[in-house]
Write a structure and sequence with these properties.
By secondary structure, this protein is an all-alpha fold. It is 75% helix and 0% strand. Residues 265-272 have low confidence and may be disordered.
Length: 484
Amino acid sequence: MLSAYREDYFFLSRALPVLGILAAIYGLLWVLAVPINAVVLAIVLMVVFCLIKIPVAVSLLSAALLGGLHARIEFPDILQVLNDNLLSGAQVGMTYIMVGAFAVALARSGILDWVAQKMASSLNRDGVNVRKQVKWMLFSLFIVASLLSQNLIPVHIAFIPVLIPPLLGLMNRLQIDRRAVACILACGISASYLLLPFGFGAIYLNEILLENFNSVGAASGYAATASMAPKAMFFPVMGILAGMLFAVLITYRKPRNYTQLEKLEAYVAPVEEKIEIGLQPLLFTALAVVVVLLFQIYFDSLFIGAMIGFMILGFSGIYRWQAQDDVFTQGVRLMAEIAVIITIASSFGALLTATGDIDPLVKSATQFFGDNKLFGAAVMLIVGLFITIGFGDSFASVPILAPIYIPLAFALGFSPLAALAMLGASAALGDAGSPASTLTLGATAGLNADGQHDHIKDSVIPTFFHANIGMLLFTWVAVVWLLG
């Protein structure tokens, strides 16, 4: 108990001076009449609050309030903006909760336990090569699951808190650095929806990116077809994958020790109890997955698809009929924190827009590069990275950046393909690495099942550097020298 108090005191002794320094800098700039962009202020405060361990939801609200007050928005108006946009965020949050319930029901089929047991039994054989094989089997499983979760089986991040916890014990025995797994999950999910025009990829590439590009670009003579979107996003995605490989093969390749806790036993079936999977669970599981996919494609409703998929699994006999309430409640617990943060993040993004300081931020940044394509592309990508960190959502960033970036790209002489790549990448930069992003929240939800994975240090910071730096560099080279 005493050591816990000492740890808290040690942390507060570092956190409080940070807040004091920020307040002093703000006061000095105010006295000197130096203009401070409200969007920059809100995003910086949000990141700092998260770094000093204030909960993400509280950090978002606090930073939004302070940013709005700095922009001289009346306090009742700030509350009005926050309240008005909670509804749209709540709709997304409810979808995540229903997807979470479907994911828990899917896990009851026993497929995940069967996979975990097969891999764990492989470690009973001696040899370094065996351990390496199991490690790369795990990494391959995470990559495939990340790719499928956005397109073929569109459950987004809901698979992570279901798939990862049963495998943590195995990962501990292999001494796998969980930061590498966080990078695999974030980079795999990002690469999937940014490149493949199915499921969530169809929403981002066709309904958001292409629609905004064509509507805004018409005045500049820009036009893009559906086939151009994957071509434009090819090089940005290659940058993401390069960052993922760098994380796995270099940055986090060394073994890292974790404590094997008893709470993991709740997730893992005993090795001596051999798990068998019958034909009926497999057929109903496949049917449920197909139904979710069809509703996502044809009816544009992941919420209804996940609900019907949940009902199919309930009727299948995979778990007892009386256990449906328990399964649904587990799904709510699984995604509740993420749903709350997503709900608040939508209000945070709306308040950033309401300050009216996004346009001045971008325009002031572009004043420095004139007609220099090399420097101009770099500044536009970095500004996009900064804005998307604040929104935590690439889907929401495209409509904000398009009215500013498309005319600038035309003025600098970029081709339609290069302009499309720069807009798509600028909106996606920061999605992996934002404290409020579903990618980092999902990774933490799974990897922190035993309390040994910190959201900021082990999910946000690793994914920020590896996903975004690779994507930024590859996109910059592509739009300047390859796509023109």
